[in-house]
């Protein structure tokens, strides 16, 4: 879904700025938190396509212009909504090991997407993160801190888990939306494709036929949990590699160009290249790409 562009600096101010303390006198009937809560209700009940400043105004019983005193537009409102629902996430206990912690964190995200499926329609690449989102990221990185991974690897692993959960949630949300719109379940829809099955013959697709006969399309008990375990298995291989080399200098990195080990200097900034030739090669590549 293409969303309108907003002012990211205004989102930062709304998410991270100090909220004025209530003064004397009657409590205001409309607040920023109330606007955000109403917007989340609209998105939960009617979907993101139904969300608009006018619809939220109807929900809170005020005019649309009243809302603009609190939030400048829909884009900034979405940033606030994402951080508001992120407050529902329970952070992993500090005593958990990295695998237990990541499993707990991933399940929390998965359950959040089930409660608020509209979140998969909001782009996460340029959404302004708020304090609740950053608290979850902090907890996830803290879990990974004891693995011995480098800084880049730690962030890559955290992103990998997030991207897996988001992808699985997006597929589930699309299936739920299709069933809600048509009144036909996924099983019913595929069972009705009789005209298709006649083309999927054993002589034409022998491997597919064997997998089918072996129960490959019977479905798993829980696709999400199966995929999550496989992702964590892959991370475990990476972590185990670090455990087997305890004397490895965690600050050292491979050459940016060729990947070969780079000798760490006694003082100063770590080197990025193993040789002058690799440094020149990287420079020529940047020049060619216009960077």
UniProtKB/TrEMBL annotation:
UniProt xrefs under Pfam families: TetR_C_1, TetR_N
Keywords: DNA-binding, Transcription, Transcription regulation
Residue intervals of the HTH tetR-type domain: 29-89
InterPro entries, alphabetized: Homeodomain-like_sf (IPR009057), HTH-type_TetR-like_transc_reg (IPR050109), HTH_TetR (IPR001647), Repressor_TetR_C (IPR004111), Tet_transcr_reg_TetR-rel_C_sf (IPR036271)
TM stretches of this protein: none
Any one biological process term the GO annotation gives: negative regulation of DNA-templated transcription
Keyword Chloroplast: no
This protein's name: TetR/AcrR family transcriptional regulator
